[in-house]
Specification:
Belongs to the RelE toxin family. It holds the Pfam family ParE_toxin. This protein is an alpha+beta fold. The protein has one domain: YaeB-like fold (2-Layer Sandwich), CATH 3.30.2310.20. Helix content is about 40%, strand content about 20%. It has four helices and five strands, in the order E-H-H-H-E-E-E-H-E. Strands 2-3-4-1-5 form a five-stranded mixed beta sheet. Strand 3 and strand 4 (about 85-95) form a beta hairpin. Helix 1 (about 10-25) runs antiparallel to helix 2. It is globular and about 40 Å long.
Length: about 120
């Protein structure tokens, strides 16, 4: 099953880079690899079933269309907007961070989008 394209905002890509660097520093390459696999699985789920995510933060933060989906075996959440032609990945954040501050300042029109794909 092929899903819609996933478009990563620059902040989402920076989040991934930071998380992987942290995993390597704290747990070594095997932890970073394990996280990357879980992230890829979560992104694949979103590409094929985007409506599955929670709307909780859309309501709490007043950001229409915002959804979140957890990355298994971690405390990280993928924040995205399910658009007609694509899945717009806004951020990937630890659930214990100040999500209102981090997401409330994001301008959905700001920054270039980078298309990514996930393997089936």
């Amino acid at each position: 099953m092929t899903g819609r394209p996933l478009l990563l905002r620059p902040l989402a890509q920076a989040d991934i880079d930071d998380i992987l660097a942290y995993c390597r520093a704290e747990g070594g390459p095997s932890l970073a690899t394990a996280f990357a696999k879980q992230l890829e699985a979560a992104l694949h789920t979103l590409a094929t079933h985007a409506a599955i995510g929670s709307r909780r933060y859309a309501d709490l933060l007043g950001i229409p269309g915002l959804r979140s989906w957890p990355i298994k075996r971690s405390a990280y959440l993928i924040f995205y907007v399910d658009e007609k032609e694509k899945i717009d990945i806004w951020r990937i954040l630890h659930g214990r961070r100040d999500l209102a501050a981090l997401l409330g300042n994001d301008d959905p029109e700001e920054g270039d989008l980078e298309e990514t794909s996930v393997s089936e």
